[in-house]
Amino acid sequence: MPLATIDLALRAATVAMLLVLATSLFRDFRNVVTGRLAIAFALGSAAHAATSAIGTPSPLTAWHGPLIALSTGNVVVFWLFCRALCDDAFALRWWHGLIWLAVAAFSFVNCLWIARSGSARLAITTVNMIALGFIILAVIQTVASWSADLVEGRRTLRIFIVAAAALYGGLNAILQMLALPSDAAGIANLANIAVLAAIVAAIICAMMQVTAGDLFPPPREAPAPAKVVDATAAADQRLIDALTRLMADERIYRHDHITIGTLATRLSVPEYRLRRLINQRLGYRNFNVFLNERRIEEAKAALADPAQAEVPVITIAMDAGFQSLGPFNRAFKATTGVTPSEYRKLKATAA
Length: 351
Hints:
15 helices; mainly alpha; elongated; about 350 residues; about 0% strand
């Protein structure tokens, strides 16, 4: 069977799998930010499967432009999807759309004009350098936030998704920047689409092994409960009591760079057990959210205290355990609906 026929069959199968995945996600998770980004990522990946080429590109027609632009813009979607997968509170901003539009528009112009002007190699290199940049950002985001994720199924799956997508995307970008001869390019293209088909199939199978709520929490998810209602296991209850004492009496959340590992060491328990307890017994999906809730409560008490009316907001934030004012302001407003300064004024007026 000719290589071109196998290549076409693999591309068609990959596009079909991605479209089925996008349809399934749209049916069940279109109202969730992570779900919408997953849908966009699947559609962008389908465009990539249909248009990806390694080596010297063949003459491009008008219909290639939009698909290649969608494929290139998919690296921005991948970066945003990784951020949403790492943070249940992640929200899309208007400037996210501008970044995607800028990358897609540049790719479109690059494809239909710059590459045709005799600078095809420069055009390919530039686009793929951009892709590598966003892939690196996605990997950094995933690594930096992975330890704080308390949902075991999601922790495992997100590492697999990000690692597989980043590895494929990175290798694909590097191969496209290499000036491969035509015979090697044909083999590389076939291997490339075969690997992509295998990765897509593996991701779909892996997603079927976890609870949907682990990956895609419902919109406007209720805040995690502060108390355990049914802690039936005596050992778990003792651990919860010890954790409560650390938080309430020692205020360990104030410590710099506190991690779930250091907290587990203080409690003399394995990290996996503490992670499972905070997630399943206390209802938190992210360790940083668990810590920030305590920090915000302390800050609220300080801001409402007339005796601390002249204390700067940044001092209160730092005393509560925040490292800088920006994250404190964002976390405080996300919790209370107002800024720290507005909260202080409201409490002063009510007094």
